[in-house]
Amino acid sequence: MIADFKRCLLLAWLVLLSPIVISAEDELFLVNIDSLPQERLVMIGFPDRTLTRVIRGGPGRSYRRRGSYQSSTWARKIVNQLAKQHQLEVATQWPITELGEHCAVMVAPADKPLEKVLAELSSDQRLTISQPVMRYRTQMLPHRDPYFPLQSNLRQMRIDSIHSRTTGREVSIALIDTGVDLDHPDLKDQIGLYRNFIQSPSGEFPKEIHGTAMAGIIAAQSNEEGIVGVAPDVKLWPLRACWSENPGDLEAQCNSLTLALALNTAIQLHPDIINLSLTGPEDPLLRRLIEKAVDQGIIVVAAEPQQYGQESGFPADMPEVITVRQPGYIPSDPQADRKRCVAAPGEKILTTFPGATYNLISGSSASTAHISGLIALLLQVQPKLSPSDIQNVVWRAYSRQPLSVVDASMALKIIE
């Protein structure tokens, strides 16, 4: 009864604020990406002490904390004040619970340069976050070669040689990506939970290519059909924060809002690993969330971009993140190579596709998924390894042997 009443209150709040572009479904936000004017969006944030406030129930009821995605009255008041002061339109707002901050996405006026809006916001002492809403892209390259009958990628990393000792059992990976085909015969038993942060026309969890392909590389089940993933017994948690612009597209995109929601949820769920097969511009909010994840012992793996620039390189350039590239790849920016970066197979990788099918993909997205799967194999053997421990092990297994990719058998020997 109480839960129904709370849900009714939340739905009434959403109806009253009709311009808002996200909706709540079982305490999750669904972002309507089509209704947001991307080129005019700014994101703000400020500390919200009410996030940790304990609310007293009625007579005979226990104490409770405020719901994860409900904005406090105080926070909404501050957002409205900021919008009025800076002549902005409130698009959406939500609490980033793991940072103790309240965030809002605002639409800047069309007759005012976005740079001027951001300069004014950055001088507002109430704000800890004032930035544009960044865009990110997955790192998968299409090709039209015929199917290969075997998976050479597992042998290239010598992963097949250690499957008799470890398969990723009792390890969890949060896959922040597009939707995944949850019914694929090689994946259906590997999904522990899933979340969607983007509205979809059907209301179902979309079966998209990029997420399904990454899921297969990491976790395809050893079931005497199809393919075998790097960690065939790992539990995979798809968190849909990216979307394909057109049905059937190999590449996908995300933005600051959807990624922040997914990262915040991932920190709450506390997987062992977060896989980010994507790249984009520097983002202060996402940086803080990734730092928080690593501080809590979660290992974050990200894709090296095909080329560095103002619109790419993050979060792979973070020192806390394990950065992965394709073998033989030389960064276009000499500064980029100063960070330790490992390589894994990323060319013509056979993997799962929606509709119980298989296909070949290329790109550092695929390379990143291989390393996430390898880390799951290592954590089954030594579950107490920290993010920095894993980073050192993977680097040693890459830099101290003649292979062009990380040697899985050497990595296992190092931790044993």
Note down, in words, how this protein is organized:
- The strands form six sheets. A seven-stranded parallel sheet has the order 11-12-10-14-16-17-18, sandwiched between helices. Strands 6-7-3-8 form a four-stranded antiparallel sheet, with helices on both faces.
- It has ten helices and 20 strands.
- Mean pLDDT is 83; it is low at 1-28, 54-67 and 142-149.
- Helix 9 (387-399) crosses helix 10 (408-415).
- The chain has 416 residues and is α/β, with parallel strands linked by helices.
- The chain has helices at 2-16, 73-86, 114-122, 152-156, 209-219, 256-269, 284-295, 364-381, 387-399, 408-415; strands at residues 22-25, 28-31, 41-47, 54-55, 64-65, 89-96, 101-107, 129-132, 135-138, 172-177, 195-196, 235-240, 253-255, 273-276, 278-279, 299-303, 322-325, 341-343, 349-353, 357-361.
- It folds into two domains: 2-133, no CATH class; 137-415, Rossmann fold.
- Helix content is 29%, strand content 21%.
- It is globular.
- The termini are far apart.
Class derived from helix and strand content: alpha/beta
Distance linking N and C termini: 53 Å
Q: Tell me, rounded to a whole number, the average pLDDT.
A: 83
SSE succession: HEEEEEHEEHEEHEEHEEHEEHEEEEEHHH
Under the CATH scheme, the architecture of the largest domain is: 3-Layer(aba) Sandwich
Biggest sheet strand line-up = 11-12-10-14-16-17-18
How is the main sheet built? 7 strands, parallel
Assembly state of the chains shown:
single chain
Secondary structure layout plus pairing:
Elements: H1 2-16, E1 22-25, E2 28-31, E3 41-47, E4 54-55, E5 64-65, H2 73-86, E6 89-96, E7 101-107, H3 114-122, E8 129-132, E9 135-138, H4 152-156, E10 172-177, E11 195-196, H5 209-219, E12 235-240, E13 253-255, H6 256-269, E14 273-276, E15 278-279, H7 284-295, E16 299-303, E17 322-325, E18 341-343, E19 349-353, E20 357-361, H8 364-381, H9 387-399, H10 408-415
Parallel strand pairs: 10-12, 10-14, 11-12, 14-16, 16-17, 17-18
Antiparallel strand pairs: 1-2, 3-7, 3-8, 4-5, 6-7, 9-13, 9-15, 19-20
